[in-house]
Every structure is written in structure tokens, then in C-alpha cells.
Amino acid sequence: MATKKIYLDNAASTPMDPRVIETVWESMKENFGNPSASHSFGQTSKSKIEIARKIIAKELNTLPSEIIFTSCGTEANNLILRSCIENLDIQRIITTKIEHKSVGETIKYLKNKHDLDIVYLPVNNKGEWQLSDLENLLQDGTPTLVTLMHANNEIGNLIDLKSVANLCKKYNAWFHSDTVQSMGHYSMNFSDVPIDFASCSAHKFHGPQGIGFAYIRKSTGIKAIQTGGGQERGMRSGTENIAGIVGLGKAFQLAMIELEERKKIIEELKLYAITQLKKYIPNIKFNGNSDDLNQSIYTLISILLPVSNSMIGFQLDMKGIAVSQGSACSSGAVSPSSTIQELLTVEELSSCSILRISFSHFNTKEDIEHLVMALKNIYEQDKSNARVHKS
């Protein structure tokens, strides 16, 4: 009998919605004309791109021209950060040490190249930082870019996007947020929230991989970092991924239409997982605020399992269960990420295992039960082995 396959790594990538697959397939068959061509085939392709752009802009309450299609959130973050430093006379970046690698590593590169002042807001062992610390820094008037992710991709912590945006606006600082984990899972209004830059990846909300977008407020004046044919209003040269963009538009539209329905399902799964894990695994801990629905994104939890086992991800995979043992954004990585190392003690890192469990509306309570029982068995076997070694 085949092992039941259970996918609980939706923070890394979600399965494509069948309706999106159908839309992408139709586009691949019909929209083969180069969007930059003047003939009807090219203009048909161009129109499909613009329809997707308008769908996204309407949902975010922005101008269509403020949506720039990219290959993913990582490219969007790079485009924004690099262009800001090259074009906006920024002298300082304020961030944290628990940002996504596409932000953290890019900042390190920009610091070395441009001799920037990088200030890291202090975070506690829950991954929390204080808005007052940010305001104290901004008061000196230094030309500043603030980059803080909306929902942490590993521990799920949420920030108050509007409060940060308003604070940055008050002190004339630019504000970029990596919204890759939260886009498609929350309703966002960028006319009400004065954010300057944001990023998105379609595969986080059941769209295709290899497509995303950068939100760039029109008044910012940043320029392209990639030269060539001048596509995407001159901000991102290169022939557009038509089918990917069409799929992104469809996935985003469905995510917004079905937002409350999906959220209710996923919140119930998350609460059930928390309850069951606490019930069956003594001394389990949750990283960051991931076990608090009010302070974390509802799609994931990060657990500190009292089992020292570098093979736990592999053991779960053998049982047909997919979760993330390390950050999925580092190819093949199972070692603790910089975020986890920032939050946990050396003792915790050496004696426990970190797992990220992330949900979608395609998951069921049965999936959670299979996972919890598998973890319970691994935990009990580890304790049994420890007693044998002691005796």
C-alpha cells in the first residue's frame, strides 16, 4: 500500500490551484506572440499582461504602473534595494538580523560596495523589535531606507505595516517591506498604508513558480538595474513570462475572492496543530510568536522539538510527510538559519530540532494527526534511545 503523501511546507511553495493550471495552460497555447511586437499576436500577449497587472493593482488599490513583474520575490527585493541605494542618495539602512536572505545578503553586499551605515534593530528571543527604537533612530534625519518584512518566513511574526509606514512617512524615510509570505493571505490597501516598496511571489498563494512582482510607488523615482529592451515600463528589461504573469493574476484574484474562506480553514488547522503538538509532545516550544494567531501569520508554525536529530526531516519524508527542517530558501539546508541562531541559545540549538510546519486550505485535520503521531513516535524513540545509552 502506497504511503499517504502529506504536504505541510506551504511557506516554501504551494501546490498550484487547478484553476490556475488551466489558465496557464491556455495562455501557453494561445499567447505565444512577443509582447513587445507590434502585430496582433504580440498585442494579444501584451493585453493579457496588462489585464493581470490591473487585477493586482485593483486589489492593492494602486496604479497599474506601480506593479512591475519579476521572476520572484527575491528578484523584486533585489531590484528595490539595489535601485534605492543607487538612485535615492540613501546613507543608512535600518533593518533586523531576521530578514529573508534576499534582503539580508543584499544589504551586506550594498554595505561593502557603497560604504553604507547599516543599523540592526535589536530583537528579543521571540523575534520582536520595538517601534520606539525605530523612531529614535529616524529622528536624526539621516536619509534612510527602512526594510522590515511583514511576516517572517521562518517564525511567522507579523509587524504592524501601517504603523511602520506612517512612522517612516513622518520622518521622510523610505519604507520597503518583503511581503512575500503575507501577499495573497491578507487584504492590503497601499493607498491607506503609505508603503513605498513591496515584493511578491506567486507560488506562495497557489500560483506558478518563477513569477512575482515588485510594488514601486510612482513618486519614488527609482530606476532599473537591469538594462536591455526596456520592458515593464523600463524597470525590468527582458521578455515577459506571459503564462506566468497570467497565472499570477488568476492566483491573486482567486486568493482575494476566497480570502476569508481560506483563512478560516487554515486558522483552524493551525490551532488544531498547536493543540495536538502540546498534547502529545512534552516540553515542545514554539519559535517566535508562531503559536499566537494575533501576532503571527496564520499559515505557519515553527517548533522547537526536544529531540536532537539532524535526520528528522528525512525520517518524516520517509513517512510521506513534507515539512521544512531548515530554511527552504537555502538549497538543501538543514542547519539552523541566521534567524534561528539569532533567537535560540547554543544549548537549544544543540539539543533540539527546529521544524517549520506550514498550511494551506488544501490540508486537512487528518494531515495534522499523521504529522503529530509521526513526531510523537520520533520523540518517544529518541527518549528511549537516550535511556538505553545512560544505562
Structure summarized in a few sentences:
With 391 residues, the protein is an alpha/beta fold. The chain has helices spanning 18-30, 40-60, 73-87, 101-114, 131-138, 161-170, 242-257, 259-280, 312-318, 338-343, 346-351, 365-390, and strands at residues 6-7, 67-70, 92-95, 117-120, 144-147, 174-177, 197-201, 212-216, 285-286, 300-305, 321-322, 353-358. Helix 1 (18-30) runs antiparallel to helix 7 (242-257).
Number of helices: 12
- Estimate percent helicity: 40-55%
Which stretches are low in confidence, meaning pLDDT under 50 for 5 or more residues running? 327-332
What order do the strands of the largest sheet run in, or round the barrel if closed?
2-8-7-6-5-3-4
Q: Sheet bearing the most strands, described?
A: 7 strands, mixed
SSE series? EHHEHEHEHEHEEEHHEEHEHHEH
**First-last Cα distance:** 39 Å
Principal-axes geometry comes out as globular
Topology:
Elements: E1 6-7, H1 18-30, H2 40-60, E2 67-70, H3 73-87, E3 92-95, H4 101-114, E4 117-120, H5 131-138, E5 144-147, H6 161-170, E6 174-177, E7 197-201, E8 212-216, H7 242-257, H8 259-280, E9 285-286, E10 300-305, H9 312-318, E11 321-322, H10 338-343, H11 346-351, E12 353-358, H12 365-390
Parallel strand pairs: 1-11, 3-4, 3-5, 5-6, 6-7
Antiparallel strand pairs: 2-8, 7-8, 9-10, 10-12
Helix pairs in contact: 1-7, 2-7, 3-4, 8-12
